[in-house]
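Below is how a single chain appears once it has passed through the pipeline. First comes the sequence as given, then the structure the pipeline wrote out for it. We keep one example in the README because the format questions we get most often are answered faster by looking than by reading.
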Amino acid sequence: MDRIEVNYRALLAVAVVLNSQRVMHSLWEAITAEITKVIPWARATVTLYDPEVDGFRFYVFATTMTQVVLQRDAVIPRVGSGMGWAYDHKIVHCRPELKRVQVFPEDKMYVQEGLGRIINLPLLVGDKCLGILNIGSIESGVPDPGDLEFLTQVAMQIAYAIDHVQAYEQIDQLRAQLDKENVYLIEELKLTKNSDSLVGKSLAFQTVITLAREAAPTPTTVLILGETGTGKELIAQAIHDWSPRHRKPLVRVNCAAFPAGLVESELFGHERGAFTGADRAREGRFELAHGGSLFLDEIGEMPLETQAKLLRVLQDGMVDRLGGKRPVRVDVRVIAATNSDLPVAVKEGTFRADLFYRLNVFPLVLPPLRDRPEDIPELARHFIRQYCVKFNRSCKDIDQKSLEGLMRYTWPGNVRELENVIERALILSHGPLLRVDEQILGSQASVSNGASPPAGLKELERKHILQTLTLTDWHIEGSDGAAARLGIPPSTLRSRMKQFGMKRPAAG
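Resulting structure:
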């Protein structure tokens, strides 16, 4: 068997092994093993070009030399190096007499190791150079042209193998990102019933819509203010949908839904081993929202220690994972919302003044439903249509008497309360016209628009909430929490607790 055939068979074996790899770590091991089989060498390395440092990093490093001067953790600069010359010119560069002539700075280190010759072979895929295959030998002299051609073919197979693995890894990353985005898209569908339905023709509401449309195309942070149930989440969704980021997800975080110790991990992510139970690295909501928007609901409930880290992200776009060594750059548009009085919270020391000013760039104040009663008929009919589809009912409209009752009611729970009332009424109604009796609407149905409920009713509500909190050991969230037992969202319950000055009794 002649030498050409031997080289051909060896090259074919290399190609089969290398092109069967799908993971970069396994590929480096395979390259090391195959180079050992087919190439006589004293030092064999594969370096890839890193544009961030404009230089080359070692990924395969093998040597039989007793003294190693140029270590694998070194970064070889592109400018002024032999690797850089081969990279820029995309041709092989051989220095056959290292001990007599050192052309590049790294050549002196090769001589110190005892090498007599070094060959730099570009790793080419089409017109793109990925890095350099470097083959060093003890002997000096010009290599045999056949051997040099064989090395060039080996370098080509290595380049194609690296390119394939990088493509597979990129596909895996895209698939993983798509899976994450799908999770959040599913979550959005669960959380928002009408993200595309902003119902209301009143001047107060249309003013908000106009301002939201003005803010949407910009990267400006938006702070949405308003009572519980006024539709802050819907406005946040609309701002995202109208923005250039609409093809990326709107990731939601309820700042009041997580214990203080978990908020940071949820927002900023963590590395493996960062705390007990952190058995793997996890991206935070900021990283998941990269390129899109992040909706921070109930921002007023965020712990002070977390507020400082949030301020940094807003200022320089850098996220620090818990237990992480390097910050991660993110591109996220932040939309925050609260029913709290943040200026008061700043005075009380529960909310950072610098964070408030950073968030309050473009405030949007949502009017309560009692301030836009002209929108109630349209909203009621909108919810009727929505729940007729959901419950497979054929209700056409709401009767006039019921509509008048809805108009007189003060709606302390705002639009969300109206939706709940329509849903309950539709469950109990089977005719073509929806009727909402006073029992469904509640004991405040007779209260005139704009008036406050009687003190006696407030006291009954306070006692009822307190009793429920006591029965649930002051657990708000969850299927057996106080909010679920009361039939209201956790955010509404927290708002009521704040109004009544309720705090969990100290232990002991």
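The CA atoms of residues 115 and 138 lie 4 Å apart.

See the next section for the split statistics.
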